[in-house]
Automatic annotation (TrEMBL):
This is UDP-glucose 4-epimerase. It comes from Secundilactobacillus mixtipabuli. Homodimer. Residues 3-253 form the NAD-dependent epimerase/dehydratase domain. It holds the Pfam family Epimerase. PANTHER family: UDP-ARABINOSE 4-EPIMERASE 1, UDP-GLUCOSE 4-EPIMERASE. The gene is galE.
Length: 334
């Protein structure tokens, strides 16, 4: 049986492909390589370069991969500020891509999908920690595009029997412990990799976006999960559906919040570098505090994250950064 991973050359996708292979699964990867990296894909996975909007391409893949036990779908855009400027790009790629994929799954009789949803579907939370049953009222088009995906898959389940698990990620960080794969975005917008670019001397300083939020030190509070722990949750979710359980949605977080200033301090300790920083205005679309209630994933899926110390998470990202200062370009990739 084969697991097809869409977006398997991206940051979270490539770590999930790697974990699937380590655990003995047969894996096929689909990626258009717009934001992903061919070198990030474990060489034991079969690779198909193409786009999820391209129905003929999906048919070609699913005609070759005839024994698919499930699909894990990461292929989406995920930058909140970009989505505020160009919402149609997000609805087209994320929501539209999901429709094409589901049609192909329906026609090829593939009945299980695990997909990347997000804490951004909740918007400004009504309570902390955020529970899966809390209202989903996104404050940006990225979150709305993912919420639409959750709704479309729900109705596809009822109509076509395609079972799903929506995994609502909070903040993801870190890299595989051996430093062979890691995070490589162009441009980089995320806090921890930007801090590490400063630590490595590639940027002069960090700008802390907003210091007047109603939090312990005025900066945004986020809930960080190690990328390998996140990857493992996808595999547990697939096994959950294979065991005959019904469709479901889970938060993936640590239930602990760190302010941006606390992350900066942890990174200073993890790297031993001074990492200069300055206060800057708020960034559009940022909720004040996002912390997950994540007991449901632990209880129902049996998820047991291995990393519970944010400094250890940052150390794995720093290891990747130091061994791959130019990301995957170090491997001769264009
Ligand atoms: N930040 C800075 N300076 C920077 C970059 C980020 O202060 O140079 C701040 C942001 O303003 C925010 C925090 O660091 O307060 C974290 O920002 P990230 O961009 O790293 O992550 P986000 O919390 O904005 O977004 C992440 C994912 C989204 C997802 C969201 C849901 O990237 O896809 O979590 O929680 F929707």
């Amino acid at each position: 049986m084969t697991v097809v991973v869409l977006g398997g050359a991206g940051y979270i996708g490539s770590h999930t492909v790697d974990r699937l292979i380590e655990k003995g699964y047969d894996v096929a990867v689909i990626d258009n390589l717009i934001t992903g990296h061919r070198a990030a894909v474990n060489p034991k996975a079969r690779f198909y370069q193409g786009d999820i909007h391209d129905r003929a391409f999906l048919d070609e893949v699913f005609n070759k991969e005839t024994n698919v036990e499930g699909v894990i779908h990461f292929a989406a855009f995920s930058i909140v500020p970009e989505s505020m400027k160009d919402p149609l790009k997000y609805f087209d790629n994320n929501t539209g891509g999901m429709i094409t994929l589901l049609k192909a799954m329906r026609d090829h009789d593939i009945k299980r999908i695990i997909f990347s949803s997000t804490a951004a579907t909740y918007g400004e939370p009504k309570q902390i920690p955020i529970k899966e049953t809390d209202p989903q009222i996104p404050t940006n088009p990225y979150g709305e595009s993912k919420l639409c995906m959750e709704k479309i898959i729900h109705w596809s389940d009822l109509a076509y029997g395609i079972k799903f698990v929506a995994l609502r990620y909070f903040n993801v960080a870190g890299a595989k412990a051996d430093g062979s794969i890691g995070e490589d975005h162009h441009p980089e917008t995320h806090l921890i990799p930007i801090i590490l670019q400063v630590a490595a001397g590639e940027r002069t300083g960090l700008k802390i976006f907003g210091t007047d939020y109603p939090t312990k030190d005025g900066t945004n509070v986020r809930d960080y999960v190690h990328v390998v722990d996140l990857a493992d949750a996808h595999i547990l979710a697939l096994e959950y559906l294979k065991a005959g359980n019904d469709s479901n949605a889970f938060n993936l977080g640590s239930s602990t919040g760190f302010s941006n200033k606390e992350i900066l301090e942890a990174a200073r300790e993890a790297t031993g570098q001074p990492i200069p920083a300055e206060d800057a205005p708020r960034r559009a679309g940022d909720p004040s505090t996002l912390i997950a209630a994540s007991d449901k994933a632990r209880k129902v899926l049996g998820w047991k994250p291995q990393y519970d110390d944010v400094k250890e998470i940052i150390k794995t990202a720093w290891n990747w950064k130091q061994t791959h200062p130019k990301g995957y370009n170090d491997r001769g990739e264009a």
